[in-house]
From TrEMBL:
Name recorded for this polypeptide: Cytoskeleton-associated protein
Signal peptide from the UniProt entry: 1-27
Keywords from the named record: Signal
Biased composition annotated in UniProt, kind: Basic and acidic residues: 286-299, 319-329
Database matches in InterPro entries: ARM-type_fold
Region listing for Disordered, in residue ranges: 278-303, 319-341
UniProt keyword Signal, yes or no: yes
């Protein structure tokens, strides 16, 4: 009896041990499977991002690096311009709480204001504002004093700090991005509205050449002066596509016969000159003798010769302007109201 009782106890303990061992192994296998499972954590990431990204963006917006600060402010601005966020700002703007209302006002003002980097010294700001006002009263005196030759031609424009050839696009860029630097843009606009100012801007490499003007004059002679150009068309003809040299086709001096696209009547006139008549009977292959080209008259030959001569003159004029810009500027009498003399 005693041996049978002992055997039962042993088998009972062995069974209990196996039961707990199986349960433990199964539990560990389930835990390993849960740990290795890839879950869709969009909600978790969103919850974590709302708490951490705001603090990170706030720290980056106060960074000493301009690039990091600009990137953080750009992300904040993009998020703030969405519909729900904008509605929340407008709702806070109408709140009765002064603190909340002021914060919403500051945020909206930040979104609508110009965020251009303000690195200009205070003294230079005062001088430019003063020059902008007095320059309109006497542009010739300012040009004679050297407002372009002595100062503007040496001014460190942002577009020329890394790419010096961009200096020729200064006038175009200041007119395009007027709000980035309204004072300097106003000064350049005043100078470019004066005939002598345009000449000096071209001379010192701040403005494009006069190739478009020559092209328009050739078209006027060809068509019979159907299109009138006023005195202010000089500035309009100098509009160049910045950075579009690879897509704008061949320039005027490449071959001497590439002209700018004109109006519909001018294009029709050029199309008629390129037309050819083809006569062919059915059942017979088309040959070169069946193509009859229009007879070129004397006017067409004279026009081509004039265009080739114009291309040579433009090349010579560009070389002369470059040589003249390299020479030392002639001494000019001082202007009593010039703030940079």
């Amino acid at each position: 009896m005693t041996s049978q009782y002992n055997d039962r106890v042993v088998w009972l303990c062995l069974g209990a041990t196996l039961f707990f061992a199986v349960r433990g192994v199964a539990a560990e296998l389930h835990r390993i499977r849960e740990l290795t499972t890839i879950r869709n954590g969009e909600k978790d990431d969103q919850v974590i991002g709302e708490g951490t990204e705001d603090e990170t963006l706030q720290k980056l917006s106060e960074s000493t690096s301009f690039d990091l600060r600009a990137a953080a402010l750009r992300i904040i601005s993009e998020r703030s311009t969405k519909g729900s966020t904008r509605d929340l700002l407008l709702e806070d703007l109408s709140s009765k709480d002064p603190t909340l209302r002021n914060k919403a006002l500051n945020a909206l003002y930040f979104l609508v204001s110009n965020r251009a980097c303000k690195t200009r010294p205070q003294g230079e700001k005062k001088a430019l504002n003063t020059l902008d006002i007095i320059l309109r009263e006497n542009v010739p005196a300012a040009l004679e004093a050297g407002v372009i030759s002595r100062w503007l031609s040496k001014y460190p424009f942002p577009c020329t700090t890394e790419d010096e050839p961009k200096r020729i696009d200064v006038v175009v860029l200041t007119k395009t991005w007027y709000t980035d630097d309204s004072v300097m843009s106003s000064i350049i606009s005043t100078l470019s509205s004066h005939q002598e100012g345009v000449s000096q801007l071209r001379k010192y490499g701040l403005m494009g050449s006069r190739m478009a003007e020559h092209t328009h004059s050739v078209y006027d002679d060809e068509i019979g002066d159907e299109y009138d150009h006023d005195d202010g068309s000089e500035n309009d003809s100098d509009v160049w596509m910045v950075g579009g040299e690879e897509t704008a086709g061949l320039p005027l001096w490449a071959g001497g016969r590439r002209r700018q696209e004109g109006t519909a009547e001018e294009q029709e006139l050029r199309r008629q000159r390129r037309e050819a008549m083809v006569f062919s009977e059915s059942g017979r292959p088309l040959g070169r003798d069946d193509i009859i080209h229009p007879v070129r008259n004397r006017e067409d030959e004279e026009l081509d010769a004039e265009l080739e001569q114009l291309a040579d003159e433009v090349d010579r004029e560009l070389r002369e302007e470059q040589l003249e810009a390299e020479r030392q500027a002639r001494p000019r009498r001082s202007w009593s109201m010039w703030p940079f003399s």
